[in-house]
Specification:
By secondary structure, the protein is of the alpha/beta class. The protein contains five helices and six strands, in the order βαβαβαβαββα. The structure holds flavin mononucleotide.
């Protein structure tokens, strides 16, 4: 099992660490070359929206290798009611054929049902299992119990 995650301000990173603690999955941070204005939320929202409108992803600098894993968690924040463009870039670059994929997301208020269709749209290979919001430890624990993935 492996956890791929993208996190701008640390919330998704915390969730990814929790999932790793509970399941034993290894962690890979998806890092990008672009330096985002993460301390200026309104500017950051504009930058994200511009990427989403133009369908341009930042360049990924992490080495992502999922060959040895059958089950992959993919996590990121919700940006402007959508996924950050880097998640769609992952599916353009990495082949997930034969893998099970579980999305987990963090947000201020957006719910899983509001982001699920966007995730289904960007996943180009692999089999999607039930994903979840990972804003707090209880949500994470409950979902992993349901999936029977607690180590
Ligand atoms: C550019 C941007 C857009 C955002 N858009 C939304 C949104 O549409 N809905 C929402 O609930 N939260 C939104 N948020 C809040 C983040 O999803 C939330 O703070 C998330 O947990 C941040 O994760 P991170 O610390 O791993 O980057 C947005 C934050 C940023 C920076």
């Amino acid at each position: 099992m492996q956890i791929l995650y993208f996190s701008l301000t640390g919330t998704t990173k915390k969730a990814a660490n929790k999932i790793s603690d509970l399941t034993g999955a290894t962690l890979t941070e998806i890092e990008v070359k672009r330096v985002y204005p993460k301390d200026d939320l309104s500017k950051m929202k504009d930058v994200a929206l511009e990427e989403q409108k133009d369908k341009i992803s930042p360049e990924i600098v992490s080495n992502i290798d999922v060959k040895k894993d059958d089950l992959i968690f993919i996590g990121c924040p919700v940006w402007n009611q959508q996924l950050p463009m880097v998640i769609s870039e992952i599916f353009d670059k990495v082949n997930f054929e034969g893998k099970k994929i579980i999305g987990f997301f963090t947000s201020g208020s957006t719910k899983y049902t509001e982001i699920e269709s966007d995730f289904k749209r960007v996943v180009k290979s692999g089999q999607i299992l039930d994903g979840f919001m990972a804003n707090d430890n209880e949500e994470i624990l409950n979902h992993l119990k349901k999936l029977e993935l607690i180590k």
